[in-house]
Give the backbone structure.
Amino acid sequence: MQLSRRDMLKIGGLGAVGAAGLTLPFRGEVSAKSASELPDSRMPRPFRNAFIRQPVATPYKKGEDASGRPMHYYDISAKTGTANIVSGLATPVLGYNGVVPGPRIDVDQGTKIVMQLRNKLPATHPTFGTPLKISTHLHGSASLPQYDGYASDVTPAGQTKWYHYPNFQGARTLWYHDHGVHYTAQNAYSGLAAQYHMHDPAERDLLPQGDYDVAVTLSDIAFKANASQLYDDRSQSGLYGDVILVNGVAWPVMKVKKKIYRFRFLNASISRSYRPSTSPAAPMYVVGMDGGLAPKAQQVSNWRHGNAERYEVLIDFRGFKAGTKINLNNLSNPNNRDFDNTNKIMQFDVVEDNALPADSPGSKTISSIPNALVNSDVMKLKQTPGMKVRTLRVERTNGLWAINGETWEDIVKSGYKKVLGNPGLGDTEVWNIQNKSGGWFHPVHIHLVDFKILSRNGKPAFAYEQGPKDVAYVGENETVKVIMKFGDKNAPVQNTGKYMVHCHNLVHEDHDMMHQFSVGLKDGDVDPNDPITAAPCGNDGEDDKYPGAW
Ligand code: C2O
Ligand code: CU
């Protein structure tokens, strides 16, 4: 592998930020005008396009399971499509149902979902030439391993897989995205990602709904001269585009009423982390994150937002005059690559109520910021003496990204037997996730669980991340201590089996910073939820319907 000098510096432990002679105008790693190969005249510009809401998928059938619980059936196809981001030129993309980002799924807690996911893509990626064997992960769901998007459980072109989503957890912002082994970065970059909202009564009561409950998916992109996507992961270190997309639109403008809005920010970028802030400053309150609502609302002026993290933020526009334009900026974080306009995300344009259409049915805002929200079980967990403690070192060894020196390739070579831990079902453990490098940050995602951050370098978690999480931003020279319970014997789903843990910088994940743990299995046990063989994909027929009961 070819490593650039900067990569060598980093492997040597000398982070670019600390390297002598480098002066940085931004907080990010490097400032450059652009990454794209488009002529300047064609480059998208901030605040020219209208904000859009992504479509919501509808179930093709509603029914009940054997015990009378509601069940919704979805039929989603991964397909090629085109996006119009560069004026006058089409960008080839991949999308769920051909849409980028994909159609949102909305569901109430207690309603099960069966999702048929068809791979209608060509065998190789039309732009990158990489294989298009896909796996679909519902990030934030305690799904069984065979429905969890296990990286090596791939569905090739022309095949289909039925996924089961139990939806028994608390209300939260989830997302489904590709997880195909070694090519997740390319596939997610090209558009295979979508939000999925689970509602419950507490959340419906406390927070804005409908028009005032806004999904905001952030991503970044760079273009070749013909407006196809430019993929440059810089020696497998990271992919940083120079155009920021919000729900697939470059730096859009959203008209807002003088009301309190709830934004569900998802960082779906491949490698970039953000630090959103408003100018002029608008009152902002983090009320929820990856695993749902926080115990308390926390006022913020900005927050550090790593890949795959979700932050639910109330923004209060009531104090602004109509005509005020509020920028949502990106203050960035160390070790991102910043370009001319990556310091901007989107803009809010405050308008009088009657300048927007009447509220759609089911919409509601709130008249004050709730203080107490939801104190979920995970937030009550405490470390006790004798509790199992594990250490996960996230590091670069021999040019590969690794966890405790091991890579997904090592897992594959072991016949998927190797695990970094095997908690019993319902066990509580403490994990120390350690990043000894000053040159990289790693957003580490643990499948299956919601966790609570006990400390960050021995200090309390940031106020805005004191809530249920499933990704921890493990920053430069940080050790993040988390506590979690592995499944629940009393839950409607017994989550035994193998689950992944990995860096959510998808370039790192693909090369090859991913490991696994098993729950409720001992050496030699037969795994009834084997992620590759328990629910295999099959041939795709146009009119096939759900084959089994669940
Ligand atoms: Cu959002 Cu294992 O991923
Ligand atoms: Cu990483």
The CA atoms of residues 257 and 353 lie 5 Å apart. The chain is about 5% helix and 35% strand. Confidence is low (pLDDT under 50) at residues 1-27.
